[in-house]
Amino acid sequence: MTMSPIDPGLIERHNADRRKHLDADYASLGERLSRRGVDIDAIARKVSAFTVAVPSWGVGTGGTRFARFPGPGEPRGIFEKLDDCAVIQALGRATPAVSLHIPWDKADPAELKGRADALGLRFDAMNSNTFQDHPSDPNQPLSYKFGSLSHADRAVREQAVAHNVETIRIGTAIGSKAITVWIGDGTNFAGQADLGRSFDRYLESMRAIVAALPSDWRVFTEHKMYEPAFYSTVVSDWGTNLMIAQELGEKAFCLVDLGHHAPNTNIEQIVSRLIRAKKLGGFHFNDSRYGDDDLDAGSIDPFRLFLVFNELVGAGEALDRLHPTHMIDQSHNVTDPIESLIRSANEIRRAYAQALLVDRAALTGYQDANDAMMGSETLKNAFRTDVEPILAKARVDAGGAIDPIAAYRGSGYRAKVAAERPASVGGGGGIV
């Protein structure tokens, strides 16, 4: 039996007060969609089947380079993080998997799996960490200040490889099937390192990691234009990332973080190219205005998120064969992280539902006829559709809440854990 931190009776009472209005809204939207030849129930089933993983670190308060302002009831370790993740899943029913970060979440694998099973959760891709030093880890005594997998010192590179292999071993024990490798390696000054030799050393290290993968595992490499390095970054863009995946072979794929590009980059076109190359591995969803802001998905530019899903849905079987993974990666600085993750998962599903409403045959016809206006309008018609009744119906049918943030606030969960968990102390720069 699943152990839920949220009383199912609370969800039932919450829904009882709102079910009549939801049914009316769903019926009204269904009638309007039927005029377009769209079966609302078919859309709802697809939305229900679409899930996104939450990051374990996302349930804590994030920060900036300047300060971190902790919130009440922050989780003290991975098991309390899993409790918070279970709240998100219980109310939103879109996030049954959690992505762990090692060594932050290092614990006995049997205990991790037992706790997740009890909460009705599973584990998504693992994440290694060689962008920080770990002085308390006897297996990582060497510093990553000047790089990790691309470091000039072979001993540091071997330490970083060993850490990734350990992360794979932990992931295997808890049922994960992939590892995401993001490194902060790069330089702040021209001449600090040889750009070509750094990349060659990185590839050599990654080959060792790929060699350690179980037969049914994949590795996702993640690019980022800048930060923490500001002159050059070893894995800086999607072209470099694609080159890496192609060189590493059939188990290697590219992961796209929506905030890891230059401002105004056409991310949906990158997605299209990676699908064509058969190397799209998945996503870290978030939103941004200036850089790697890690804001809530869909909170700044929901149309861009929709356009990404338009490419995913439009790819059809070409995408299905890739089995991409989907995860949220955000920093919650001024909101309750549970609320932000509930909303973000819903916004991601919203973009998917809207993309499912695009009239593909009409769109292709307008594109082939060079009708720019009607091609644009076809996308806009889908984007302008209020699909909230579909999202709410998917939640309710799976046992979730019609208004999950309202239900969460009504549950008193944050006040409860704030009373149980010691207050976290603020400090300097947080995780960004």
UniProtKB/TrEMBL annotation:
Q: Which InterPro entries match?
A: L-rhamnose_isomerase, L_rhamnose_iso, Xyl_isomerase-like_sf, Xyl_isomerase-like_TIM-brl
Keywords per UniProt: Isomerase, Manganese, Metal-binding
Q: Could you tell me the superkingdom of the organism this chain comes from?
A: Bacteria
Q: Name one GO molecular function term.
A: isomerase activity
Q: Identify the residues that the record assigns to the Xylose isomerase-like TIM barrel domain, covering every copy.
A: 100-294
Q: Which Gene3D superfamilies match?
A: Divalent-metal-dependent TIM barrel enzymes
Q: Which residues cross the membrane?
A: none
Name used for this protein in its record:
L-rhamnose catabolism isomerase
